Amino acid sequence: MAMSGGNDDGQPMMEMNTTPLIDVMLVLLIMLMITIPPVSHAVNIDLPVNDPNQPPPEVPIDPVINKIIILPDSTIQWNGTPVTLQQMEQYLVQTRSKTPEPELQFQPAPTAPYDTVDKALVSVKRSGITKFGFVGNEQYRVFGKASREGR
After folding, report:
1. CA dist., res. 82 & res. 116, Å (int)
2. How many other CB atoms are there within 10 angstroms of residue 76's CB atom?
3. CA-to-CA distance for 151 and 67, rounded, in angstroms?
4. CA–CA distances in Å: residue 40 to residues 31, 37, 46
5. Burial code of 102-130, b = ≥16 C-beta within 10 A, e = fewer?
6. DSSP letter string over 62-80?
């Protein structure tokens, strides 16, 4: 609290203590700020509508063996077709739901970026695929072989 040194002559203090008023004003200001709704910007987008006469696109999932290839330029291929990480995750979910479950082969290029390979492996792990294998491991038989081939 703000105190002022007054005289000892018994006269009342002539200065008003404004600290409690400032505290009340700050509390009211904070309450006002909390009650104001957040600003939201809406963007209206016309989304495409599915045509019921058009058949859905064919999913390139082989019932026996599917292969994921990671290329040096971070391109992910599903059975030879370039796909995004999200598309690959959708294919993995559809693969997992097939009976019997098809085998999934994973083949990263020797100079493929680690980040892309790691994200793809995390997606495979998260999908719950049980028939999974690495192919093309013979290219890593000699340590440093990939770095010598790229020169």
Report:
1. 14
2. 22
3. 28
4. 20, 9, 19
5. bbbbbbbbeebeeebbebbbebbeebebe
6. -SSEEEEEE-TTS-EEETT
Q: Give the model confidence (pLDDT) of 89-104 as tens digits.
A: 999 998 888 888 999 9
Reported as a single tens digit per residue, the pLDDT across 19-46 is 999 999 999 999 998 898 877 777 888 8
d(CA 110, CA 103): 22
Quote the strand ranges of 1-151, DSSP E. 65-70, 76-78, 81-83, 103-108, 132-134
Buried b (16+ CB within 10 A) or exposed e, 5-26: eeeeeeeeeeeeeeeeeeeeee
